[in-house]
Specification:
17 strands; two-stranded antiparallel sheet; Aminopeptidase; 234 residues; 13-stranded mixed β-sheet; 17% helix; alpha+beta; 2 domains; 43% strand
Length: 234
């Protein structure tokens, strides 16, 4: 069996990351971002002679580790590379003091769901994504805290463990919405007591149990539904 080596990515790995991302068949947001994808967080690369897989780790402000972008070259599928990358990421996260590791998986990505479950992750919550945004013009800031996950730029963190610097919770007319300061076009609905419509522009994340309140909402193309999987590290 060929030996796998997990290491930190370097700038020269971008060409391999780009190639693997295209070959693995996922919606290619990584190549849309380009080399800037490597600027934030930590990327682990798996080598078998040459790079054949990678995974990105970002430390979130609720002391959790966000795992994303796991990709394996199809020529190396069923060779345990996804497991090696995931386990190495968990070791890295623990060394950075993370209390949880989480990942977001598209509902149709059964390969990644199986990988998550195999490595001890459980489904924490399921979300639907819509084009548009709630009307926040008459809302006011709220000090309420929710023991629930919120979208902070496509990573999900526990709202009750975030500081006010991370985002604003706005409330009014039976609606509560979290707006992440680093990604102001992304909205996350936390509470709805009446049917609402979404205004143009932006992206709104809606927990599955609140979807029935969205009136005439258009699902986000190619990423309509996904679930967050979570693993406690302590």
């Amino acid at each position: 069996m060929q030996q796998k080596k997990i290491r930190l990515a370097v700038e020269a790995d971008w060409q391999h990351i780009s190639r693997i991302s295209k070959a693995s068949g996922y919606a290619d947001y990584i190549n849309k971002i380009g080399p800037a994808y490597m600027k934030d967080g930590t990327i682990l690369v798996c080598d078998i002679d040459t790079p054949c897989g990678f995974l990105k780790i970002e430390m979130l402000p609720d002391e959790s580790a966000w795992l994303s972008g796991i990709r394996v070259d199809p020529e190396h599928w069923r060779n345990g590379i996804g497991d090696c990358l995931t386990n190495s990421a968990l070791v890295f996260a623990i060394s950075r003091g993370a209390s949880y590791a989480r990942m977001l998986i598209h509902s149709e990505n059964q390969r990644s769901v199986s990988l998550a479950l195999k490595n001890g992750f459980v489904q924490k919550d399921r979300f639907h994504f819509y084009e548009g945004r709630p009307d926040i013009t008459k809302m006011v800031e709220s000090a309420k805290q929710y023991d629930a996950l919120v979208n902070i730029g496509w990573g999900f963190a526990n709202h009750a463990r975030l500081s006010i610097k991370t985002g604003a919770l706005l409330a009014g007319h039976g609606v509560s919405v979290f707006v992440y300061h680093g990604h102001d076009e992304t909205f996350h609905l936390l509470e709805i007591s009446k049917e609402i419509s979404l205004l143009p522009d932006g992206i709104t994340c809606v927990p599955e149990h609140l979807v029935s309140f969205i009136k005439d909402g258009k699902k986000l193309e190619e990423f309509e539904e996904a679930a967050v999987y979570e693993k406690p590290l302590f």
